[in-house]
Structure prediction request, 256 residues.
Amino acid sequence: MPCSTVDPGFLAAKKLKELRISKVVNVNERQVLQFLGQCRDMLVAATSKLLVKCPLTYTITRNLACMDPCMMATNKDDCVAKFRRVLHKLVFLKQVNEIDCDSLQWEYEAFLDEAVSRNFSKFKGYSCDDQRLDTFLSMYMNGVPAYDKLWQLTKKLLILSHGQATVERGFSVNAQLIVENMKEKSVVFQRVVHNAIANYGGLLKTPVTKSLLSYAASARRKYMAYLEDQNHQRSLQKSFDSKRRSGENTEQLEAG
Prediction:
Protein backbone atom coordinates (compact mmCIF):
# COMPACT_ATOMS: atom_id res chain seq x y z
CA MET A 1 0.00 0.00 0.00
CA PRO A 2 1.50 3.38 -1.00
CA CYS A 3 2.04 5.75 1.91
CA SER A 4 0.05 8.46 0.17
CA THR A 5 -3.13 6.34 0.33
CA VAL A 6 -2.98 5.82 4.10
CA ASP A 7 -5.77 7.53 6.03
CA PRO A 8 -4.38 8.58 9.45
CA GLY A 9 -7.75 9.77 10.68
CA PHE A 10 -9.63 13.05 10.64
CA LEU A 11 -7.72 14.85 13.40
CA ALA A 12 -4.30 13.65 12.25
CA ALA A 13 -5.04 14.64 8.65
CA LYS A 14 -6.18 18.07 9.83
CA LYS A 15 -3.03 18.53 11.89
CA LEU A 16 -0.82 17.49 8.97
CA LYS A 17 -2.53 20.02 6.77
CA GLU A 18 -1.94 22.76 9.34
CA LEU A 19 1.73 21.83 9.68
CA ARG A 20 2.23 21.91 5.92
CA ILE A 21 1.11 25.52 5.68
CA SER A 22 2.58 26.60 9.00
CA LYS A 23 5.42 29.09 8.93
CA VAL A 24 6.54 28.23 12.46
CA VAL A 25 7.15 24.51 11.95
CA ASN A 26 8.73 23.44 8.69
CA VAL A 27 7.20 20.08 7.67
CA ASN A 28 8.02 18.94 4.16
CA GLU A 29 6.34 16.30 2.01
CA ARG A 30 9.01 13.72 2.77
CA GLN A 31 8.32 13.94 6.52
CA VAL A 32 4.59 13.60 5.91
CA LEU A 33 5.16 10.45 3.86
CA GLN A 34 7.40 9.06 6.59
CA PHE A 35 4.67 9.66 9.15
CA LEU A 36 2.07 8.00 6.93
CA GLY A 37 4.45 5.09 6.42
CA GLN A 38 4.74 4.67 10.18
CA CYS A 39 0.95 4.71 10.44
CA ARG A 40 0.77 1.99 7.80
CA ASP A 41 3.36 -0.14 9.62
CA MET A 42 1.45 0.24 12.87
CA LEU A 43 -1.82 -0.82 11.23
CA VAL A 44 -0.13 -3.82 9.60
CA ALA A 45 1.41 -4.91 12.92
CA ALA A 46 -1.89 -4.52 14.79
CA THR A 47 -3.81 -6.40 12.10
CA SER A 48 -1.22 -9.19 12.08
CA LYS A 49 -1.56 -9.58 15.83
CA LEU A 50 -5.34 -9.75 15.54
CA LEU A 51 -5.08 -12.37 12.81
CA VAL A 52 -2.81 -14.51 14.98
CA LYS A 53 -5.45 -14.50 17.73
CA CYS A 54 -8.39 -14.79 15.35
CA PRO A 55 -10.33 -18.09 15.65
CA LEU A 56 -10.57 -18.26 11.86
CA THR A 57 -6.89 -19.15 11.71
CA TYR A 58 -7.81 -22.59 13.07
CA THR A 59 -8.90 -25.31 10.67
CA ILE A 60 -11.74 -26.55 12.84
CA THR A 61 -13.22 -23.09 13.29
CA ARG A 62 -13.13 -22.34 9.56
CA ASN A 63 -14.94 -25.57 8.79
CA LEU A 64 -17.51 -25.56 11.59
CA ALA A 65 -20.00 -24.22 9.08
CA CYS A 66 -20.78 -27.88 8.45
CA MET A 67 -22.81 -27.70 11.68
CA ASP A 68 -24.90 -24.79 10.38
CA PRO A 69 -28.46 -26.02 9.66
CA CYS A 70 -28.86 -23.52 6.83
CA MET A 71 -25.68 -24.77 5.17
CA MET A 72 -26.78 -28.36 5.66
CA ALA A 73 -29.99 -27.64 3.80
CA THR A 74 -28.59 -25.57 0.95
CA ASN A 75 -25.03 -26.77 0.34
CA LYS A 76 -24.63 -30.45 1.12
CA ASP A 77 -21.41 -31.04 -0.85
CA ASP A 78 -19.60 -28.16 0.82
CA CYS A 79 -20.74 -29.35 4.26
CA VAL A 80 -19.47 -32.86 3.58
CA ALA A 81 -16.08 -31.48 2.51
CA LYS A 82 -15.86 -29.26 5.60
CA PHE A 83 -16.86 -32.12 7.88
CA ARG A 84 -14.13 -34.28 6.36
CA ARG A 85 -11.54 -31.56 7.06
CA VAL A 86 -12.77 -31.32 10.65
CA LEU A 87 -12.31 -35.07 11.07
CA HIS A 88 -8.77 -34.90 9.67
CA LYS A 89 -7.86 -32.19 12.17
CA LEU A 90 -9.46 -34.01 15.10
CA VAL A 91 -7.56 -37.16 14.21
CA PHE A 92 -4.34 -35.14 14.11
CA LEU A 93 -5.18 -33.73 17.56
CA LYS A 94 -5.98 -37.26 18.80
CA GLN A 95 -9.53 -36.28 19.67
CA VAL A 96 -11.07 -38.82 17.30
CA ASN A 97 -9.97 -42.36 16.54
CA GLU A 98 -9.16 -43.03 12.90
CA ILE A 99 -11.27 -46.17 13.05
CA ASP A 100 -14.38 -44.09 13.76
CA CYS A 101 -13.90 -41.61 10.92
CA ASP A 102 -15.63 -43.67 8.23
CA SER A 103 -18.67 -44.31 10.41
CA LEU A 104 -18.81 -40.65 11.47
CA GLN A 105 -18.70 -39.48 7.89
CA TRP A 106 -21.34 -42.02 6.90
CA GLU A 107 -23.61 -40.90 9.76
CA TYR A 108 -23.15 -37.25 8.79
CA GLU A 109 -24.03 -37.87 5.16
CA ALA A 110 -26.98 -40.03 6.20
CA PHE A 111 -28.14 -37.23 8.48
CA LEU A 112 -28.06 -34.78 5.58
CA ASP A 113 -29.92 -37.19 3.30
CA GLU A 114 -32.54 -38.22 5.83
CA ALA A 115 -33.14 -35.82 8.71
CA VAL A 116 -32.29 -32.63 6.83
CA SER A 117 -34.23 -33.63 3.73
CA ARG A 118 -37.34 -34.52 5.75
CA ASN A 119 -37.17 -31.20 7.63
CA PHE A 120 -35.76 -29.04 4.86
CA SER A 121 -37.80 -25.93 5.65
CA LYS A 122 -36.89 -26.03 9.35
CA PHE A 123 -33.18 -26.36 8.63
CA LYS A 124 -33.19 -23.70 5.94
CA GLY A 125 -35.14 -21.27 8.11
CA TYR A 126 -33.12 -21.88 11.28
CA SER A 127 -32.09 -18.78 13.22
CA CYS A 128 -29.91 -18.73 16.32
CA ASP A 129 -32.01 -15.81 17.57
CA ASP A 130 -34.98 -18.15 17.96
CA GLN A 131 -33.31 -21.33 19.20
CA ARG A 132 -29.93 -22.51 20.40
CA LEU A 133 -27.99 -24.60 17.90
CA ASP A 134 -27.35 -27.47 20.31
CA THR A 135 -31.04 -27.62 21.21
CA PHE A 136 -32.04 -27.62 17.56
CA LEU A 137 -29.63 -30.36 16.49
CA SER A 138 -30.40 -32.49 19.53
CA MET A 139 -34.01 -32.78 18.38
CA TYR A 140 -32.83 -34.67 15.29
CA MET A 141 -29.67 -36.42 16.55
CA ASN A 142 -30.01 -37.16 20.25
CA GLY A 143 -31.55 -40.52 21.00
CA VAL A 144 -31.36 -41.72 17.39
CA PRO A 145 -29.13 -44.84 17.24
CA ALA A 146 -28.17 -44.14 13.63
CA TYR A 147 -26.59 -40.83 14.65
CA ASP A 148 -25.17 -41.79 18.04
CA LYS A 149 -21.48 -41.24 17.22
CA LEU A 150 -22.31 -38.11 15.24
CA TRP A 151 -24.18 -36.62 18.20
CA GLN A 152 -21.27 -37.29 20.55
CA LEU A 153 -18.90 -35.53 18.15
CA THR A 154 -21.36 -32.68 17.60
CA LYS A 155 -21.46 -31.96 21.33
CA LYS A 156 -17.67 -31.71 21.40
CA LEU A 157 -17.61 -29.35 18.44
CA LEU A 158 -20.30 -27.08 19.85
CA ILE A 159 -18.48 -26.79 23.16
CA LEU A 160 -15.57 -25.11 21.36
CA SER A 161 -17.54 -21.92 20.74
CA HIS A 162 -18.42 -21.50 24.42
CA GLY A 163 -14.90 -21.34 25.82
CA GLN A 164 -15.17 -20.20 29.45
CA ALA A 165 -18.75 -19.03 29.07
CA THR A 166 -20.13 -21.62 31.49
CA VAL A 167 -17.59 -20.75 34.16
CA GLU A 168 -18.10 -17.01 33.72
CA ARG A 169 -21.87 -17.48 33.79
CA GLY A 170 -21.40 -19.32 37.08
CA PHE A 171 -19.57 -16.33 38.52
CA SER A 172 -22.47 -14.12 37.49
CA VAL A 173 -24.99 -16.40 39.20
CA ASN A 174 -22.90 -16.47 42.37
CA ALA A 175 -22.77 -12.68 42.40
CA GLN A 176 -26.56 -12.56 42.28
CA LEU A 177 -26.90 -15.07 45.12
CA ILE A 178 -24.38 -13.56 47.52
CA VAL A 179 -25.61 -11.21 50.21
CA GLU A 180 -23.72 -9.47 52.97
CA ASN A 181 -21.93 -11.69 55.52
CA MET A 182 -22.88 -14.92 53.72
CA LYS A 183 -20.61 -17.84 54.55
CA GLU A 184 -19.13 -20.24 52.02
CA LYS A 185 -21.50 -23.10 52.85
CA SER A 186 -24.50 -20.85 52.34
CA VAL A 187 -23.25 -19.89 48.88
CA VAL A 188 -22.72 -23.56 47.98
CA PHE A 189 -26.17 -24.66 49.14
CA GLN A 190 -27.93 -21.72 47.53
CA ARG A 191 -26.17 -22.54 44.28
CA VAL A 192 -27.33 -26.16 44.58
CA VAL A 193 -30.92 -24.96 44.99
CA HIS A 194 -30.56 -22.54 42.07
CA ASN A 195 -29.18 -25.25 39.77
CA ALA A 196 -31.92 -27.69 40.75
CA ILE A 197 -34.65 -25.16 39.97
CA ALA A 198 -32.99 -24.29 36.66
CA ASN A 199 -32.72 -27.98 35.80
CA TYR A 200 -36.48 -28.41 36.22
CA GLY A 201 -37.15 -25.40 34.03
CA GLY A 202 -38.24 -22.89 36.64
CA LEU A 203 -39.67 -22.55 40.12
CA LEU A 204 -43.23 -23.42 39.11
CA LYS A 205 -42.08 -26.62 37.38
CA THR A 206 -40.07 -27.88 40.35
CA PRO A 207 -41.83 -30.89 41.94
CA VAL A 208 -42.68 -30.58 45.63
CA THR A 209 -41.94 -34.06 46.98
CA LYS A 210 -42.29 -35.50 50.48
CA SER A 211 -38.54 -35.53 50.96
CA LEU A 212 -38.37 -31.85 49.97
CA LEU A 213 -41.09 -30.96 52.48
CA SER A 214 -39.29 -33.00 55.14
CA TYR A 215 -36.02 -31.16 54.52
CA ALA A 216 -37.79 -27.81 54.63
CA ALA A 217 -39.55 -28.67 57.90
CA SER A 218 -36.31 -29.73 59.58
CA ALA A 219 -34.20 -26.88 58.21
CA ARG A 220 -34.48 -24.75 61.37
CA ARG A 221 -33.63 -27.67 63.62
CA LYS A 222 -30.58 -28.53 61.53
CA TYR A 223 -29.48 -24.91 61.58
CA MET A 224 -29.70 -24.76 65.39
CA ALA A 225 -27.80 -28.04 65.64
CA TYR A 226 -25.13 -26.59 63.37
CA LEU A 227 -24.81 -23.50 65.59
CA GLU A 228 -24.52 -25.66 68.70
CA ASP A 229 -21.82 -27.72 67.04
CA GLN A 230 -19.93 -24.56 66.08
CA ASN A 231 -20.16 -23.26 69.66
CA HIS A 232 -18.91 -26.60 70.94
CA GLN A 233 -15.98 -26.52 68.53
CA ARG A 234 -15.08 -22.98 69.63
CA SER A 235 -15.24 -24.01 73.29
CA LEU A 236 -12.91 -26.94 72.67
CA GLN A 237 -10.52 -24.68 70.80
CA LYS A 238 -10.51 -22.13 73.62
CA SER A 239 -9.87 -24.88 76.18
CA PHE A 240 -7.04 -26.25 74.08
CA ASP A 241 -5.48 -22.80 73.66
CA SER A 242 -5.77 -22.12 77.39
CA LYS A 243 -4.06 -25.40 78.30
CA ARG A 244 -1.33 -24.76 75.74
CA ARG A 245 -0.62 -21.28 77.14
CA SER A 246 -0.64 -22.66 80.68
CA GLY A 247 1.87 -25.32 79.69
CA GLU A 248 4.10 -22.74 78.03
CA ASN A 249 4.03 -20.53 81.14
CA THR A 250 4.91 -23.50 83.35
CA GLU A 251 7.87 -24.39 81.14
CA GLN A 252 9.11 -20.80 81.27
CA LEU A 253 8.89 -20.72 85.09
CA GLU A 254 10.73 -24.03 85.42
CA ALA A 255 13.39 -22.83 83.02
CA GLY A 256 13.77 -19.59 85.00
